[in-house]
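Chain and conformation:
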Amino acid sequence: MSSQSRLYTFSPETTEELRKFRLGTSRAQKPQARIYQIDKQTLEIAHVDDETYTDMQELAEELPGHSPRFVLLSYPLTLPSGRLSVPYVMLYYLPVTCNAELRMVYAGAKELMRNTAEVGKVIEISDAEDLESIEEKLGGESK
């Protein structure tokens, strides 16, 4: 982990933003997502824009076709028991058309991003259309 820490960095602002997003979405009524990318030169992990997406279709349109991204997602859903659950997960978006260099950069940072964002689960997706079935993936066996 220490070698990962030296290789990839988060600005203090990004670290604070990750914490606020995690805490602020725990009681969300609608899905909330933020997109993060790695700067290839500095290897700094930062948000793509200041947008918080609440619509999965809009989020899918923002994901690039040939470049990986980390997406933090808080997705409220009702369990079969009737209880409301708000899983906080990281989507590891890795398109099949992505080049090998970017694959390696993002693969190396995946666990650091997971630990820094304090997500409960990492879900790998290879296509933006996979977002349409995200509720099934979050619901696990119960769906």
The longest helix spans residues 100-117. The chain is about 35% helix and 20% strand. The mean pLDDT is 88.
